[in-house]
Specification:
The structure is a homodimer of 429-residue chains. Chain A has 429 residues and is α/β, with parallel strands linked by helices. Chain A contains 13 helices and 13 strands. The interface between A and B is large, with 54 and 54 residues. Chains A, B: GO terms for molecular function: L-aspartate:2-oxoglutarate aminotransferase activity.
Chain lengths: 429, 429
């Protein structure tokens, strides 16, 4: 089969008829498959079931420092949980605050604190005429929702193979003191799966910002989520904390992470790590918002994951379930779409997503076609601020939830929809 | 012994010498006792230990509607947890949002939302020149901290036997549209232990407020926390939701509650209940801040407490542990202080606290003396906004944590300190 771009009108029409017929057959099957969200599969959740046996009515419910985890107290987390989360956040336990069940909430609350209180003495952002935020695209829709909800203007910047387009970022932040920060998913980025290079990390840490209180929201959601046992060399991310200290901007970053995709999403433990000055400022307000977070769940996690020592083994088991799904996605996309030359996609070594680029102007149509054939994708546009992908070309593929056989069927539908949308466009032109 | 007020200078000096000697003996014992916070005792925590066996690796981890409680989702709570928290909040499950581990966080976040977004279309409170809040006194220090942290000006109003002084409240709210709300602990109030009368509830619901978006923060922290099996008739609080609806102010209230003092503080489940319009508004922002809360903990609680059916039995067991402590406090205060005529105190039928009024100008001294003798009390002033008790007379007694024998010793110290401070003042005058 030649590339679609090289086909004659008649060939395109014949291909369209064939693909449309195939689509009709698929749609008639009454499938109900979901590749919309980065949800772990049932098999992944089962890996953490033994954690539910760690604490029972006979267990020792005291933390190592004697804290009764059944009662009030301990704002920043029990020592063993701080060590666990420090391992995950690549930081020291004293720089960590263990929080509730979700890093999303930690990020939302951190942004709200800056709006209400400012950062280390700066004007509360909510009192400024405008606040802007850099959003590497494609990016994570829930990050963008936080900005939108809180009235922060989003500025998209391209995400490259090794992180955000740093020339563009540097150009923007030096010129406009209303730009207060940037979203970063430094490892296996959502959705493209790329990992930031050391140079990117250093430039983010060192760049000259018009806003003195510029903040990098470093969402290390997939810090240990590689498909193979050990991460590739290029997937070991330079520590943003160290880079910021070295660059003389020690308070520029906040690191976020959680065990959501390690144990149980929604019933895990989240945390942040930051500079001593930022930690002190956060604790001052957090101590009014909360007496302490769920220490029994902290204890459960710290013991089950052996304060981080068991993470490599545990994540290898996740990887063994995830890897084959990403291989299948890659295989299906290559088999069905490579020859036609109508799309590109990423092939990550970890994380939860593949970023797919179809022909301009087809993403919404592809997602609509898939939905009508029983396959739910992440909404087109979701990977852009305000849901507005100007090229209407990017789609996030989330292969984690369905079992392999369902994923196989879902990818057949998806690739068929891509072809159909592309052909519809080519024939109409 | 006559009342101190009737003693001669010589008699007072003799009494002072005697009390001072007794104080010295007590201080020499090296006690380390704590009546500072409303923490449940170890014996109370043990009542909920079986809850840790409810969910293990063999358990069915699906909610009744099939939701896998191990995975993402369900913003407002699984159905069985909504029923449990509706029972606690005296409301319908559809008006309930099940939240994280603490009603304190729920209240802080609700206040922040009003600052950032306003209430049902009103101007965001954070953009107003000033926001004021009514604070019945004596009251709960963590409520006051929320206002102070967020820059909301607190106006104290007297708390009477049947709730806030409603004439004062009505006079204030009708005259000043900067007054946006009031803290209420309607049952076994913190610290006085009083319960609001039906008339108080109706007047709060119906009063004319200059601010259209006036909100009652209804912290029903001790809804089921009576010492005897059944609450007294006067401890059955009129439903604020019903009263607000009847008065034509259906959106005026937000109810808050948690299982902190039912199961495990910090590892419990919190919730709010509100009108449909308020629930919709809260969900709109909460859905950005969180994907969902800890459903495994919701499931654990719903099953252990049988969606509320087991609450009466479970709270009776708490009451059987708490009742004798409050009896002991009452007995010690009466025995040691009644004759001297230097103090008054409350004698609640539920909750966690006794409110103690010593001679004006002695509260700080009493707390200092107690601390130096090894007994930590809640800080003097804590029951007033900004920690400023203008009479310096009110002290919160929190008898829940120490076992009976320790409480006995602590109350001996406390009553001795009260006498000593009173005598120091009388002799100096």
């Amino acid at each position: 089969m030649p590339r679609y771009a090289e086909m004659s009108k008649a060939e395109l029409e014949a291909e369209l008829a064939e693909v449309r017929a195939r689509y009709g057959e698929m749609a008639a099957r009454g499938l109900k498959l979901n590749m919309a969200r980065g949800k772990p599969s049932a098999a992944q959740l089962e890996l953490s079931l033994p954690m539910l046996d760690v604490l029972d009515s006979e267990a020792d419910l005291a933390a190592e420092d004697g804290t009764d985890c059944r009662n009030y107290g301990v704002l920043d987390g029990i020592p063993e949980a701080k060590r666990l989360m420090a391992a995950l956040l690549d930081d020291e336990p004293e720089n960590v605050i263990v929080l509730g069940n979700a890093s999303l909430t930690a990020m939302y609350d951190a942004m709200v604190r800056y709006l209400v209180f400012g950062a280390l003495g700066s004007t509360p952002w909510g009192r400024l005429p405008e606040v802007k935020w850099l959003c590497p695209v494609p990016g994570y829709d829930r990050h963008f929702s936080i900005c939108e909800d809180l009235g922060i203007e989003m500025i998209p910047v391209p995400l490259c193979e090794d992180g955000p387009d740093m020339e563009e970022v540097e150009r923007l932040v030096v010129a406009d003191d209303a730009i207060k920060g940037i979203w970063c998913v430094p490892k296996y980025s959502n959705p493209s799966g790329i990992t930031y290079s050391d140079e990117t990390v250093r430039r983010l840490a060192a760049m000259e910002c018009a806003a003195d209180d510029f903040r990098i929201f470093w969402d290390n959601a997939y810090a240990v989520h590689h498909f193979s046992g050990d991460p590739a060399e290029q997937d070991i991310v330079l520590d943003i904390a160290e880079a910021c200290r070295e660059a003389g901007n020690p308070d520029r970053y906040l690191k976020f992470g959680s065990t959501s995709k390690i144990t149980f999403p929604g019933a895990g433990v989240a945390a942040l790590a930051a500079s001593p000055a930022n930690i002190a400022e956060i604790k001052r307000h957090l101590g009014v918002q909360a007496i302490g977070h769920d220490k029994l769940n902290q204890l459960r996690h710290a013991r089950f994951l052996e304060e981080g020592a068991r993470l490599p083994e545990h994540m290898a088991a996740h990887g063994a379930l995830m890897g084959p799904k990403f291989e299948l996605v890659e295989k299906k996309l290559a088999e069905e779409l490579a020859e036609a030359g109508i799309a590109t996609w990423t092939n990550p070594r970890g994380g939860y997503f593949v970023s797919f680029e179809g022909p301009a102007g087809t993403a919404r149509r592809i997602v609509e076609l898939a939905k009508n054939a029983g396959v739910t994708m992440t909404g087109a546009g979701a990977t852009w601020p305000y849901g507005d992908d100007p090229a209407d070309s990017n789609i996030r593929i989330a292969p984690s939830l369905p079992p392999l056989e369902e994923l196989d069927a879902a990818m057949d539908v998806f690739t068929c929809c891509v072809k159909l949308a592309a052909l519809e466009q080519l024939v109409e032109e």
